[in-house]
From TrEMBL:
Family assignment from sequence similarity: Belongs to the binding-protein-dependent transport system permease family. HisMQ subfamily.
Keyword terms: Amino-acid transport, Cell membrane, Membrane, Transmembrane, Transmembrane helix, Transport
Domain ABC transmembrane type-1, residue spans: 18-206
GO molecular function per UniProt: transmembrane transporter activity
Family matches, as CDD domains: TM_PBP2 (cd06261)
Pfam families recorded: BPD_transp_1
GO cellular component: ATP-binding cassette (ABC) transporter complex
Cross-referenced NCBIfam families: HEQRo_perm_3TM
Gene3D superfamilies: MetI-like
Species of provenance: Bosea thiooxidans
GO BP of this protein: amino acid transport
Protein name as annotated: Polar amino acid ABC transporter permease
Transmembrane segments: 20-42, 54-75, 188-208
Biological classification of the source: Bacteria, Pseudomonadati, Pseudomonadota, Alphaproteobacteria, Hyphomicrobiales
Coiled coil regions in record: none
Length: 217
């Protein structure tokens, strides 16, 4: 293992897969956060039917294991007349799953903002959209920053599931390289790449959690 020739042959595969992994993360995380935030706002609205729909969305997609959802979107939707290419299908599945978790996190943050903040903002003449955008939502996101970042990390790590639908991300290209060199070096190198990518983020998340836990309520 880790013979110089093997490593030299493996690196181009991993670089190619790393680009796809980063692309998937860049697409999925903002989409999931945006959709999740909208669902959370609906879940905190005054309309009971809208709240019910939002809660059903959250519960339904949180109940689906990501792998099952990916398989369903890619393999089952064609039977309903909707056939998506590999990357859009994967992005859709992970956006649905990730947005449900983001929605629950943001909803909890919105519920934690005191009602007085709404009233004080409205007293200054702001309309409902401005109150939510400039006053309530920033406070809510700040209150739930650690779980938000934790979900970002989980979504980024879940890009490794893309190999299920034959997307040439980091893990899949490592497996292809393994077939070319006939030893586990590519898989071990891929594991090291994941560690280098995510370890700093984990340490940052731990630091934020510690700092927030010491802040007065």
């Amino acid at each position: 293992m880790f013979h110089p020739d093997t490593v030299a042959l493996t690196i181009p595969y991993l670089l190619s897969g790393l680009k796809v992994t980063l692309l998937l993360a860049i697409l999925i995380v903002p989409l999931a956060f945006g959709v999740g935030t909208l669902v959370a706002i609906v879940a905190n609205s005054k309309s009971r039917p809208a709240r019910i729909i939002a809660y059903l969305y959250i519960d339904f997609f949180r109940a689906f294991p990501p792998l099952v959802l990916i398989i369903f979107v890619f393999y089952a939707l064609p039977f309903l007349g909707l056939r998506l290419p590999e990357i859009p299908a994967f992005v859709l599945a992970m956006t649905l799953n990730g947005s449900a978790y983001f929605a629950e996190i943001v909803r909890a943050g919105l519920a934690a903002v005191p009602k007085g903040q709404y009233e004080a903002a409205q007293a200054t003449g702001l309309n409902g959209f401005q109150v939510l955008t400039y006053v309530v939502l920033p406070q809510a996101l700040k209150k739930v920053r650690p779980p938000l970042l934790s979900n970002v990390l989980e979504l980024a790590k879940a890009t490794s599931l893309a190999s299920v639908v034959a997307i040439a991300e980091l893990l899949r290209t490592a497996r292809i390289a393994q077939g070319a060199v006939y030893d586990p070096t590519p898989l071990l190198m891929a594991a090291l790449v994941y560690l280098v990518m995510f370890w700093p983020f984990v340490r940052l998340l731990s630091l934020i959690e510690k700092r927030q836990s010491f802040k007065p309520a």
